[in-house]
Amino acid sequence: MTLALKNVVRRAGGQTHIHETSIALESRGFNVLLGTTLAGKTTLMQLMAGLVPPSSGEIWFDGRNVTGVPVQKRNVAMVFQQFINYPNLSVYENIASPLRVARLRDATVAERVARIAELLQLTPFLERRPAELSGGQQQRTALARALVKDADLVLLDEPLANLDYKLREGLREELPRLFADRSSTVVYATTEPAEALLLGGHTATVHEGRITQYGPNGTVYRHPVDLTTAQVFSDPPINTAEVVKRGDTIRLSERVSWTAAGSLRALPDGAYTIGLRPHHVRPATGRGGVQVDCTVLIAEISGSESVVHFDLGGLIWVSLSPGVHAFKVGETARFELDVASCLYFGPDGARVAA
Amino acid sequence: MSARTVNQKAWWLVLPVLVLVGFNAIVPLMTVVNYSVQETFGNNKFFFEGVKWFEMVIHSARFHDALKRQLLFTAIVLAIEVPLGVAVALAMPRRGVWASVCLVLMSMPLLIPWNVVGAIWNIFALPDIGMLGWTLNRAGIDYNFTRQPVAAWATLIAMDVWHWTSLVALLAYAGLSAIPDAYYQAAKIDGASSWAVFRHVQLPKMKHVLTIAVLLRFMDSFMIYTEPFVLTGGGPGNATTLLSIDLVKIALGQFDLGPAGAMSLIYFLIILLLSWMFYRVMTLGEAE
Amino acid sequence: MARIRIEHLRHSYVPRPARESDWALKEVDLEWADGGAYALLGPSGCGKTTLLNIVSGLLRPTAGRIFFGDADVTASPPGERNIAQVFQFPVVYDTMTVYDNLAFPLRNRGVPEARVDSRVREIAALLDLESMLPQRAAGLTADGKQKISLGRGLVRSDVNVIMFDEPLTVIDPHLKWRLRSKLKELHQRIGLTMIYVTHDQTEAMTFADQVVVMHEGTVVQVGTPVELFERPRHTFVGHFIGSPGMNILPCRLENGVARFAGVAIPTANTAAETPNGARTEIGVRPEFVRFASAGIPVRVAAVSDAGRHQIVETRHGDTVIRLLLDERDQVPTVAAHVSFDTAFTRLYVDGWLAG
């Protein structure tokens, strides 16, 4: 079941919410829409579902043009950030509701609801009302309702955002398993890069109404096409700096420079922007990388990791390293930059090398 | 290729509403417009007169007097009911059994048929046998609303406040209930006095609700007919003859359909204009 | 001055509590030194917000006492406790400008206008709000509004404690980082006692000097982030802290040695005696698990790419053991062995750290 958007534009209230976008989604695995709030993720989902018509462009599903088709006729299921359930129906009836609309026989309904409830661990709660359940259980009910329909397209709009940290972690692991044996196209919107990575599958980075890149997670993460994509797909935010290449040397500042290796040598001389993810900046161990001396601004120790913000001659960078590395504010320390993992971007933001 | 999700069924569902509105509002309105530009001598023959009636009404001293009376009435009533309604809403408990009791008590005046309200107050204020009238006269105040214009006005206003303050109070109460606890908690921590809390937390958050309440009260009080008619009939003399009462006198009393039609339309346009002005002023801040 | 002591605190929202489940706070005894950064960490419903509101005076406890310094403040209203609180949803006075919002608490206390002005500008500079002072507060973004809420607390010179009730909930992830670091920076600069309530263990661990972990109305463990990470006293703490949480393996104790899947697992602590029928478990964090040539036989079930590392999920029968690999390391294809770093492998009896 492949979903494709062809030259879709969405304008509302005098503003363009989605600029001309074309994308063909994968039918297996998760398709993650990653971006900040108001980037356009929800609008894209509404366009895919048919809740909102595109101002121009077409939506194709399974080789058929479904642009004008109302959402009730499309086989779509959607789960929202706020736990949306019918408040006056029991959990059983909530899960059964799409099946009742499809007018299935009671026996079929009972069997399918029981199966889904088992999958989502809701069996002991089937007779309760949503208001009597915890947040996690309410969201599972909403998920069950979406799954029982066996829809061709399942849209999940930040479904875990209102849940506790640990609950979120647990459900995040379960979700790919729940959809593993289905042939539906799953689209998942989130603001957290970590979530996009952990869910696996493909990611589309959304920024200000445009999809900057779409591809398998690993590709988008390690080979972003431009600086915007790298910044969207980074948590903590990616460290950036201006460098100048002259001959074989790439120079960051008076005292920091390194040799251009491999494909970098072929780059024309000039100014570039580099992006270096915080986990490629570590307290110096002498194992390699470019050594820099800097002033520590603040160190956050969480036990498993240490996040150190430092000042490198006016440049404020962040280092993320495993273990405990305690520094005092204002302390001078040595860090090493794994420049082999640097991403290089040209003046227009497009990536030139990595 | 049309990109619109077109659903024709919606029109069928709207059709009955359109028919109803057509019959009850548009058609009668057009009839009034029809009358307002014609003259009749009662034998069902109509002559087109153009804007003659409109000019007559606008220049008539009788219309000006009724309009002045109406504006004064609406101004006084709004000035009393809105602050009073808000004060009552602030005093009402928000949780517990008493909250339900208060809500029921506040709703009661709104449930009484309007002519009954007029009748109740008529009897209540009678100087010889009415509780209010008799008590006031016994206390030494010379009070007779059937003869004294000031007494008639006072009674009229008291009746309207009694009848309609609840509406403002209930709307304001709904607005207050929507304010999250965190605001009150933060204000407490900031050391704000109750007045400061009212001014900076409650009033701004009630703005939308108050806009609706003021608009509703304005329109209703401007159009008021039944209660003053039953209470004073427009008297003594024409002391409490508000616009609607005057209009009915012209239309049904004198059967001057032409001037009545013209006056109705002018009346309608005045309400529309004043409502629009009120609305613009109250939502001024939101444009930013 | 701002040493906070909580004695035998219990609280119930029900007028006549009958069962254990009626109590939101079951028994809390805590002591917080002046000037520290503390976090109250726990899942929804554990009682952390209740505890916070009792400390700030917004809630009167059913039983127990609170001392600020030597004074018993249990009955004092918030205005008398010299505290400030930042709520989950930004609270700003919409009708006022940013400047007036920050000045509000001072003006309420009758502070002279000249002093109000200097204080407001000082705090605005600290929070990077200077350019926005003349703007209407209602027009700011969520993180701007939270900064205003914070500023209203900092502006008062009589504030000893600032409380935060999940303040970053409505903030976008990429701005959360900045605001979090800002809070830590502020704490280091100003030195006020700060108490931060959250369910997000990353927030708690990066911000606080000491974390109070709560579960179902009781305090499970109090310690520094490193202590909680390396030496959790209860399996709940092991599971709740760290992403992914601690691996818990059921084990059998034979002659003081823990055994899992027939393999002897050396642990950092031992249990002298365990009562019959007690549940014995081994807890070890994924950070301290490695692939090895000998150890517990496992098969690799799943690999997640978390960017900076890979999370490998291995299974032995029904038990899941997770470990972390560097992003460039190769994952064994199917079958392998895992071994644990003894210094960080601990034995738990009925959930609690043994010994």
Task: Report a brief summary of the structure.
The complex is a heterotrimer of chains A (about 350), B (about 290) and C (about 350). With about 350 residues, chain A is of the alpha+beta class.
What does this structure look like?
The complex is a heterotrimer of chains A (354), B (288) and C (355). Chain A contains eight helices and 21 strands. Chain A is of the alpha+beta class. Chain B has a single domain, classed as MetI-like (MetI-like fold, Orthogonal Bundle). Chain B has helices spanning 9-36, 52-59, 61-91, 97-111, 114-125, 131-138, 149-177, 181-189, 194-205, 207-222, 226-232, 243-253, 257-282, and strands at residues 38-40, 46-48. With 355 residues, chain C is of the alpha+beta class. Chain C folds into two domains: 4-235, Rossmann fold (3-Layer(aba) Sandwich); 244-353, OB fold (Dihydrolipoamide Acetyltransferase, E2P) (Beta Barrel). In chain C, the strands form five sheets. Chain C has a six-stranded mixed β-sheet with strand order 6-7-8-3-9-10, with helices on both faces. Chain C is globular, with a radius of gyration of 24 Å. Chain A binds chain B through residues 50, 53-58, 67-70, and chain B through 1-7.
Distinctive features:
heterotrimer; A: 354 residues; alpha+beta; six-stranded mixed beta sheet; six-stranded antiparallel beta sheet; 8 helices; 23% helix; globular; B: 288 residues; mainly alpha; MetI-like fold; two-stranded antiparallel ribbon; 2 strands; 74% helix; disordered N terminus
